[in-house]
Hints:
Layout: E1 5-6, E2 13-14, H1 25-33, H2 49-55
Antiparallel strand pairs: 1-2
Amino acid sequence: MKESQTxxxxxxxxxxEDKDKVLCNRCKDVLxxxxxxxxxxxxxxxxxDAQEKKFSIxxx
Length: 60
């Protein structure tokens, strides 16, 4: 049975299956650089319902 991983800093669910991982990518960036990364696309682990609706194409 797979246990869900949780970031030790922000307590968000970690999507990767790496058992040694204790921080999400966003928290790692904040600790390493002082600010989160700015990708040109929304990160899958931080998608909101509004973004899901925005990116869905309605069927005609």
